[in-house]
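Researcher: We're teaching a course module on how sequence relates to structure. For the next exercise, students receive a sequence and then see the predicted structure as tokens, so they can try to spot secondary structure elements on their own. Here is the exercise chain.
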Amino acid sequence: MKIRILLISFLLIVTYSCKKETPAVSSLVNYQGDESFSVIFGSTIVGHLKTHTAGDTIEIDYDYKNNGRGPTMIETIVLNTSGYPVQWDITGNTTFGNAVDEHFTLNGTLASWIDATGSDSTLVDQPKMYVNQSGSPYAAILTARLLLKSKDQTASVLPGGSLKLTEMETLNVAVDSSSVALTTYALSGADMNPSYFIMDDEQRLFAVISPRFVIVREGFESKEKELRAYAEKYSAERFESLQKEYAHDYGKKVRVSNVNIFDPNTLSLTGPSSVLVEGDRIVSVDAADAAGDDEVVIDGAGGTLVAGMYEMHAHTGDEGGLLNVLAGVTSFRDMGNDNTVLKDLVDKINSGVLAGPRIHALGFIEGKSDYSANNGIVVSSEAEALAAVDSYHDKGYYGVKLYNSMNGDWAPAIVKKAHGYGMFVCGHVPAFATGNDMLRAGFDEMTHINQTMLQWVLQPGEDTRTLLRLTALKRLPGVDLNSPEVQETMDLFVQNKVAIDPTLAIHEVLMKSRNGEVWEGTKDFVDHMPPNAQRDYKVALAQIETPEDDVAYREAYEKIVETLKMMKEKGIFLVPGTDLGGSFFYHRELELYQQLGYTPAELVKLATYDMAQYLGDDDLGSIAPGKLADFFLVPGNPVEDIKAIKTISMVSRGGTIYYPSEVYPAFGIEPFTKMPEVKDSEK
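Model: And here is the predicted structure for the students to work with:
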């Protein structure tokens, strides 16, 4: 009996051993160990991305600080044998301090995730890549490995939509004796524009590249400018292609018929009219049904024609140029940029290679510190700051903008130097200085309303080069606007005739956005956006830690509105800009100004004619014979409802015609209105 039992046990062991499968090989078997990357802005290393891979698990440490702010993220990703994530945990803080606690799991056919917008789940018949909300750019390489095995390098992803991988080109990068064979890729589908990264021939990440910054493998930091140039080239090629496809240069006179024209002098609409354009100029304003020989006729269908608007707080990039034109923003004031990149952009826009607004450039001057914004010219002394003014004057900049790490004691000399050239001066309030100091130094305009108001709540020695310049706004509800301190500031504005660029829309986002709630300012367009953009518009910027924080930030926003209303009543000139990229947010900026006492008609005038006068653009700002043909067409009447500017059917930028409904699908945006009827009369 014992022998029989032993024999059966032996046979069971043998049978089990024969049937037992070989352990599955991890998809990360070739990528074990550590990787390290440097984050670089403006040739300055500002942080790191580090990974540790063991078995199926990747640990990621991502942290950088530029301009006193940046994300801090820790990630843990577990992949299955096919390379799909089955667990993804992300914790840390976003650029503006909002806490991140994001999780994804794939358990059999059930995919579940929790992010700042809430929680959700879905059943899947096969694994899918998860597009994280707050993680590091390292996800690009994991996505690429999967897409390279997919048909047409395209696949649907979670939470929704699809991604496509496009090979751009191959290259070799050498440092000393190390040479690496690389391939650059574009990853598109999640957002309005592709992202770009570089992979080596072992399918390891080498770099993530953009026109603004680079994340590059440790040891290759010296190649930052060269790598960034690839991103600049790819982005430019994309937008040059869009310009060729969608910019209509008809080569003959263009007439926009049957329209009502906004007149800034009367704050009203004209009767039915037509506008004739030849080249880049308006030739005549005629009867609604006027016609001539050999004209392209765009039927305005009784809509409203408005002169092109001015985004007065822009940081120009090719990605935002076309979107702003489509939004009726045909002029920019650039408030600080990479000077070489900006010059190249201006040249391409002016030559018609790229679509974009006309640009008035302010030269960015920043002081050198651990918190520097690595942009424009960074200086270490007053002499260097004055030399920067000389440089910007010689290059044709119309003014300069001072920034956070600048020594406030240098401001009077900088202003004197700039004013001697007839240059404009504005900026942030340098750390440890006050808004009143800058008003007395001779600033022509103050930038961001919080920069002026902080002096009413800060304690001596508090450092506004950090996120304190935003988080301290929680203290604003206690400010008495009728106090001598506040009124002293108001009097300095009035006496010195200083304007304010309040960027109200970005303060609305900062102080009123909450995780899981659609940003108030995006509600009119969020449903038209691609999946990731919709998701982004449901995430708070600031960290709202307690119910008291929630109330404090909301009341702080109301205090800002009260302050701006008081400024308007005192005759202080308000300059509309967003620092949010313009476009749809520029429409929101104007819409918010109604709280300050502006009528819709006054806002249209402010955005067009008043800004043209402010910048000395005599050929812009209104629709009249001889002026440049910058204008846009809306079906509605913005004199009655400012929201009408959000539904644009046609834009002329110097006689080049764009139809937003034709272009928006290239950005994954659902059009807002129909394209007008266009007839080409050949007689």
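Model: If you want an answer key for the exercise: Residues 224-246 form the longest helix (23 residues). The radius of gyration is 28 Å.
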